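Hey, quick one: can you model this chain's 3D structure?
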Amino acid sequence: MKKFLGTFFYALLLIIVIVVIFDISEKIDDFMEHDAPLHAIIFDYYMNFIPYFANLFSALFTFISVIFFTSKMAADSEIIAILSSGISYKRMLVPYFLSSLIIAIFSLILINWVIPSANKKRLEFENTYIKRRYYNSEKNIHRQVLPNVYIYMESYNTIYNIGYKFSMEKFENGKLKSKLLSDYMQWDTTKHTWKITNYYIRDFVGDKQIITTGRKIDSAINLKPEQFARRNNVVEAMNHEELDTFIEEEKMRGSDNVTLWIIEKNKRLSFPFSTIILTLIGVTLSSRKKRGGIGTNIGLGILLAFSYILFMQVSMVLATNANVNPVFAVWIPNILYALIGLFLYHKAAK
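Sure thing. Here's the predicted structure for all 350 residues.
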């Protein structure tokens, strides 16, 4: 366990230092152009960037660490000595399992509760000093703002908070009870309401229609301008409970991005398990002494690890664009590679 965790944290520390140096060289022009304060660069950006990046590559570096020190033990005939002393292969895997479990639990806590809090400051810094202002490019926007209440906008301007060609429909028992049409609506920053301009309302009362028109009217619609001015990565700043609530709200509104949010939620649960799976694959690949030495094991291990990462990305694309169930798409790589790990374990144990 000392070799496992020591190698893991040492390798992770090295890669973090390298990545931070490259990131500084890439973004230094943006920092200078936007006059980013040094205190904000260090404490708001990089101190919150490091946990995010460390967790992002923790599974991969767990895998590399396992292959590295296990291959070295095999090359020095230490594993042969362990097994010859009467310890079973299964018993030898216990420290590997415990170490990977520690990293997995640590990752689970980080990714669901600690990192989202850190990402709030990191994303705020990026939006202020690195990224350009966000512009909403959606067309023909449909939303459900309340049960049986639906709105439509042809487009939305995030600079002036204006929704063009606005309409709102209210249903009761599956029948249309009221419909509002207007040229546009704009957010009133003083009253915190929507000001609807040039409106035309049709109310259906029994067999009659009541038509109301006017120049302007205020409406407290269950809708905020922030909902149109946020990037897709806003979920990175939500903890587990906030993400659950956000997904339910987006489902009610009929958002087109619900699949992305469900994928994000399940990634946070499935990702820590990949640490245990890759540990099993790593130790079974590298516990036997090979003629090529450590290099052969590391090369084969990295190839397998990157195939796993590639498979994860492909499955997420299928979930997003091919209507594959997002929960299944996120978990299938773990299931498949867990089976590969069990196969390699039975082979290595013999």
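One thing worth noting: DSSP finds ten helices and seven strands in the chain.
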